[in-house]
Amino acid sequence: MSKIDTIVADGNEIFRYGLSSILRDHGAFNICSEIDNGALVLTAFESVKPKLCILSFSMPEMEGIIIAKKIISKNPGANILLLADDTDQKTLNEFLDSGAFGLIHKSAHHLELIDAAEKVSEGERFLGKQFSRMMTEEYIRLAKKKKRPGDPIKSITNREREILGLLTEGLTSTEIASKLYISPRTVEKHRTNLLKKLKLKNTAALVRFAMENEQALL
After folding, report:
1. DSSP state, 150?
2. For a disulfide at 10, which of 16, 45, 62, 149, Cβ 3.0-4.6 Å?
3. Are 156 and 210 in contact (CB under 8 A)?
4. In the prediction, which pLDDT does 144 show?
5. Buried b (16+ CB within 10 A) or exposed e, 107-146
6. Which residues share a beta bridge with 10?
7. What band does 42 get if pLDDT is binned at 50, 70 and 90?
8. How large is the angle between the packed helices 13-26 and 110-121, nearest 10 degrees?
9. Cα distance between residue 188 and residue 166, in whole Å
10. Residue 181 carries which DSSP code?
11. Residue 149: pLDDT band by 50, 70, 90 thresholds?
12. What are the start-end ranges of the H helices in the chain?
């Protein structure tokens, strides 16, 4: 069985070494490159074309979330697992907007790291326990809110419903465009229209809205 070619990127040498050691000891991962500088990750990714890129939010020179977006814009199928320093709503929102497949906190147990790395390397979505809890709590909060007068769902077109559903599945604009045989620019236009109609600020808010109104959107 071939090993999973992996890039590990983190600005802290001790943490990066420990992370790589855990993956190597597991036996399923081949660490192709260890990177301590955000600006070098893009070059390394294009050179190695790994099956998995594990990337910290906080990186010298260029933030991990920006790197992830740049990689995904050129490689829509890139399997990126983000490592977060914080467990706040801002971090979760940035992850949901990035198009990356996985997110765990740096304090996660090593078994959760292995589980996340294996699943993300196969193109599966993975949300760490701390962030899954946040999503559940947000869903419950939204479910308890009373619907606003003048149901905005009625103004959503069928195409916008399709796009909203695919955004909820975690697809990027490029992936949605390919699936629906339209241009990424058209997807972005529909996404912008949805934000305006629903008076929301970002993709993360759209995803939460879709979760709250799942039955009404069918």
Report:
1. S
2. 16
3. no
4. 63
5. ebeeebbbbbbbbbbeeeebbbebbeebbeebeeeeeeee
6. none
7. very high
8. 70
9. 13
10. T
11. low
12. 13-26, 38-48, 64-74, 89-98, 110-121, 129-144, 158-168, 173-180, 184-198, 203-212, 214-217
pLDDT in tens, 138-148: 777 666 655 55
The 10s digit of each residue's pLDDT in 55-74 is 999 999 999 999 999 999 99
- Look over the chain and give the mean of its residue pLDDT values, rounded to a whole number: 89
186-190 LR contacts (CB < 8 Å, sep 24+): 187/163, 190/159, 190/160, 190/163
Select from 111, 104, 142 the least CA-distant residue to 125.
104
**What's residue 125's pLDDT?**
92
- Whether the CB-CB separation of 105 and 130 falls below 8 Å is answered with yes
Model confidence, pTM = 0.69
Do 19 and 35 contact (CB within 8 A), yes or no?
no
Asked whether 51 and 34 are in contact (CB, 8 A), the reply is: no
Q: Which residue has the tokens 């103004």?
A: 155
Structure tokens at 199: 């008076």
Whats the size of the chain, residue-wise? Answer: 218
The mean pLDDT value for 97-112 works out to 94
